[in-house]
Amino acid sequence: MKILHIIQPTSGGSERYLFMLLKNMQNQGYEHILVCSYGQNITSYKDYISDYKYMRMNREISLVDDTKAILKFRKIIKSINPDIIYCHSSKAGAVGRIANIGLGYPIVYNAHGWAFNMDCSVLKRNIYRWIEKILSVFTTYIIAISDYEKNSALKNGICGVSKIQTICNGIDLDACKKQTEKRPITRKELGIPDDAYVIGCVGRLSKQKAPDVFVKAASKIKKRIPNAYFLMVGDGEEKLQVSQLVENYGLSECFCITGWVDNPMAYIVLFDQAVHVARWEGFGLVLAEYMWAEKPIIATNVDAIPDLIKDGINGYLVEKDNISNIVEACLQIHDNEVITKNFKVEGKKRVLELFSVERVVCEHMDLFNRIVSEKS
Fold first, then answer.
1. Which residues make up the CATH 3.40.50.2000 domain(s) of the chain?
2. Continuous segment of H or E residues that includes residue 317
3. What superfamily does domain 2-170+356-375 belong to in CATH?
4. Other beta carbons within 10 Å of 154
5. Residues 14-36: what's their mean pLDDT?
6. Does 46 score more than 80 pLDDT?
7. Alpha helical stretches, state H, 81-119
């Protein structure tokens, strides 16, 4: 079965999701072809795809550039003659589905988080919502990465219940293990004192992930936990502002921003606490990684996060942008060994039961086989 994947310019969760899927579908009787934007690094994909093609595709909306991308992808579709087209994220979903109009190939779309749920103006939300409604007509199946995403689509009238299927996200447990064993990261390398209590987060430095909130909470936590050290694993468009904020709060001696890394799990194992204070979230892949690493978690009570974190059972849920909530939850974990142990045990149990990549792959294969069978 030949699957043509198109992914928008990104370095976030959707790219990691696609890599994980392709790697673990290897030797299952599928041929994968990848279409991505110029400048996107595909080195890690090469062992898992039969071919790849570049085309110009920008994240921003542009009538001229988007029209060129649609026409280019339409030519690619005709030349590849795939059994299924799989579109990853909103921009690739728009380009892919419009390009396929009139060609009739089965097309699967995974938004990896609805654009209309982002923290943006009402006008933008309505535009995104109507785009998704219109394009759903040209979609064979929509994959939701969480029950929240599915319910959100149905609530907003994006499609009917028969067209959308939840395939909850997951993580590659073997890859997590290899990251921690291949090249362990030490505290000494990062300049972290041996006696430090490390509070960390992994994610893009962007408005969505609220790195500013993490820094503001850190400034208050440091006053209550003198040996606290803060580790931020990631990079992004707000790195300069975040670095300035760290300096303004006088945290430079106890704060490290790593930049992009290809082995985040090697850093996660250094955490005493893991924090994820996103303002909106379609799933929150890093939460599953925190659970696998047996880290007590603090996360915001937004969107799909409560699908992973059950408050008081495998972590604490706090209100969005609420600094005092974060500080209080941090102190509860720091001061109570019983809570810490319970969160670790319940988190590991939950990720092993529900969020493995093997389940994600099997559910994709079932869907792909069903689509081809229905077409026949």
1. 2-170+356-375, 173-354
2. strand 316-318
3. Glycogen Phosphorylase B; (3.40.50.2000)
4. 15
5. 89
6. yes
7. 90-99
Question: What average pLDDT does this structure show over 126-145?
Answer: 95
The answer to whether the CB of 87 falls within 8 A of the CB of 110 is yes
pLDDT at 16 > cutoff 90? no
- Determine the residue type at 16: R
Question: Measured in Å, how far apart are the chain's first and last C-alpha atoms?
Answer: 13
Which residues make Cβ contacts (< 8 Å) with residue 244, sequence separation at least 6? none
Q: What is the Cα–Cα distance from 327 to 214, expressed in whole angstroms?
A: 10
C-alpha distances in angstroms, 354 versus 49, 173, 288, 301, 313? 27, 12, 10, 20, 15
Report in angstroms the alpha-carbon separations of 205 from 27, 212, 239, 298, 336.
36, 9, 6, 18, 30
What six digits make up the tokens of 83? Answer: 């059994």
What is the per-residue pLDDT across 270-305, written as a single tens digit (0 to 9) for each?
999 999 999 998 888 899 999 999 999 999 999 999
> Please, are residues 123 and 349 in contact by the beta-carbon 8 Å criterion?
no
SS3 250: coil
184: DSSP letter:
P
CATH 3.10.20.70, applies to 173-354 = no
User: pLDDT by residue (tens digit) across 235-270?
Assistant: 999 999 999 999 999 999 999 999 988 889 999 999
